[in-house]
Each structure stands twice: as C-alpha cells, then as structure tokens.
Write a structure and sequence with these properties.
The chain is an alpha/beta fold and 361 residues long. The protein has 2 domains: 6-247, Spore Coat Polysaccharide Biosynthesis Protein SpsA, Chain A (Alpha-Beta Complex); 261-349. The protein is built from 9 helices and 13 strands. A hairpin with a 4-residue loop joins strand 6 and strand 7 (135-139). The longest helix has 60 residues, at 301-360.
Length: 361
C-alpha cells in the first residue's frame, strides 16, 4: 500500500458472521491483529447468532462492533444484516474459521483501487488443507467472475443493487454476484486465504474429494508454509484446533439443522436435475451437468449411475444426521428436567436444614 498515503486510504469494514466457533476466536483475533492495513482505517463488524455467544472474547477489542442475535438465521440473511452495520468504503470478509494472511485486507483494497471498473474482488482459485491427508489441494480456478464468499472484498456501492438470498444457508455467492455477472477482479490466493478442513465445517469439505474433476481439483505443490509464516499460528490451525473441537459440542454441524435441511434440498435438486438430463439425453449415451460454481461437465453412462448413487447416499447421511440431532435434543431436554429436579430437591433440602437449625437453636 506504499503508493497510497495513509490519509487517503479508504475506510474498510471487515465483516465476520459467526455461530458457535469459540475455539477459533483467539486466532481469528490474531489474524485480524496481524493485518498490515492501518487499524485506524478499519472497523470490524461481528454478527453472532450462536447459542454460545463470544461477546466476552471480542467486545473489548478496539476495532470491534459486536451484534448479538437471539435466534439463528440463515447465513444469507445474516450477511445482509451485517452489511447494514457497515460504514466503510470497502467491505472485506474474514470468516471465523479460516486463516487470513497479514496482507489480506491491504491486497484486496489495492486490487480494487487498481481496477476501478471492478465492484467486487475474490478468489476463484482457492487452497484447502486436509489434515487426514496432510496435503494442500488446489480448487479452481473456475472462472474470472467466480469466487467463494470467504474471499470477497467489494465496494460499498455494490450493496445498492445487490444482496444475498435471505433463505440461503449454503452456496450463497451466486445470487449476490447476480449469477456471476457483477464486474469482478481476481485476487492472489496466497495473499487472501487458506482454508482448513475440520470436523466442525458446516459443509464437510472432504466431500469435495469424493468425485474430483481433475481439471479443477488437484494436489498442490504449495504447503501450509506457503501461506502461514508464524510457527504458533501454523501449530494452531494444523494441530491444536482438532483437539479443541473434539470437546466442543455447540459447534458440531448437527447444531445447524437449517443448514442440514438446506443441504438435503440442494442434493435432492441435483439428483432430480441429473435424472431429468439423463432422460433427455439418454439417446446420446451421455449427459452434461452443471455443478455450482463449475463449468459444465460431460458424464458417460457409468459416471451418471455413480453420481446418482453418491447423491442418494449423501441425502441418506444428511437425513441420518437430522435424526441424530432430534435424538440429541430429546436427550438434552431429559437432562434438563433431571437437573431441575435435582436443583429443586437441593433447594428443598437447604430450606429444611435451615428450618431444623433454627428449631435447634
């Protein structure tokens, strides 16, 4: 940012939606504090609709404007609400569970300033570290106007004519970017984000490796060291966080039934679309499918059958997760009733002991 004197740099609103991610918050704050963009030019908007609120961890931060919501709302609606709290010229997303390099904000701002025709910037090429494989995979690039929301940076004026689908819990980028027609510029992925696959991901990122298209998914020669220079940060994201998540029940995906239901709808729609295409193109012996954010892909007969089976299996697993969640809610309710009974008994015992003590005096 040397070419832009500090006094004329645009004001930035960093936006972070969060839901039950307490184990990540300490290092989410470190990612923010490590940013090389002038802190007096940044406000940090955090919107929390979790059941385990993080206000105690962030309210004292000098840049934070913290907003609590009493009920969980879809991510699309939460992002729209978040935007109403911003005052910056440029809005930059920093999600709560990803690693953002120190130049995340400055690189995004400079890229937008250098490309005045673009309303939005982001990454169509993204890197994800999978701990169970100890490898970084490259996903994309998918297209010049494509990007994942966690990498977005955009001018405030984009909000005059663009918003998220209020009901979207997943894949919310398409509607906000108006079917990827918004004037766009790509960011350098190494200066933007490193995603970590973990047990509490809203969407299990390991599914991305089940049927990879080699044109868009491949093992990268980049490593975690390419993105993270600080040893302590690397230790946290690669190792420590997994142990912390094991005992953190509020963050499990089953605590987000709205997301699970949304995933079922998406999988069901994809299955029906695939079936319809299969019927329409059966005579040709192949079909063309369009995955979210990906170019069309031609599938042959065996590949079609495999895809349908995988989608059906995914739907079954999601239905199973919802049943487990329902059972957990019932068990939790029973435990609450037991606890109330014990507390009532304890109160009664205390009153009785006090009464006896007074009599014996």
């Amino acid at each position: 940012m040397e070419a832009n004197p500090t006094n004329i740099l645009p004001r930035v609103s960093v936006c972070t939606p969060t839901f039950n991610r307490r184990p990540f918050i300490s290092h989410m704050i470190k990612c923010f504090d490590n940013q090389d963009y002038p802190k007096d030019k940044i406000e940090w908007i955090i919107v929390d609709d979790g059941t385990d609120k993080i206000g105690d961890l962030v309210k004292q931060h000098p840049n934070v404007k913290y907003f609590e919501l009493d009920e969980k709302i879809p991510l699309g609606k939460k992002r729209n609400y978040m935007h109403t709290k911003t005052t910056g010229d440029i809005i930059v997303y920093m999600d709560d569970d990803d690693y953002y390099p120190p130049e995340r904000i400055s690189h995004a701002v400079k890229t937008l300033l250098d490309n005045p025709q673009a309303l939005c910037a982001g990454n169509s090429e993204i890197y994800i570290y999978f701990k169970h494989l100890d490898k970084v995979f490259q996903f994309g690039p998918y297209g010049d106007t494509h990007a994942t929301a966690g990498t977005f940076a955009f001018r405030k004026e984009l909000l005059e004519d663009s918003e998220y689908d209020d009901d979207a819990s997943l894949a919310e980028e398409k509607s906000f970017l108006k079917n990827y027609t918004v004037p766009f510029v790509q960011l350098d992925p190494v200066k933007s984000i490193l995603v970590f696959s973990h047990e509490h991901n809203t969407f299990d990122k390991r599914k991305l490796l089940e049927t990879p298209n080699p044109q868009f998914v491949k093992v990268s020669d980049k490593t975690v060291d390419t993105f993270i220079k600080e040893a302590e940060m690397k230790q946290f994201y690669m190792n420590d966080i997994e142990e912390l998540l094991k005992d953190y029940e509020p963050g499990r995906p089953c605590m987000k039934p709205d997301v699970l239901e949304n995933m079922i709808k998406i999988e069901e729609k994809r299955r029906k679309d695939a079936e319809n295409m299969a019927k329409n193109m059966a005579s040709q012996g192949s079909i063309m499918i369009q995955r979210e954010g990906c170019p069309p892909t031609l599938l042959k007969g065996d590949e079609i059958v495999k895809l349908l089976r995988q989608q059906q299996d995914s739907i079954s697993k999601l239905n199973h997760l919802i049943k487990i969640k329902d059972q957990e809610i019932i068990l939790f309710g029973n435990e609450v009733l037991k606890l109330r009974t014990v507390m009532q008994k304890t109160d009664n015992d205390t009153i009785f002991e006090s009464y006896v003590s007074q009599i014996n005096q």
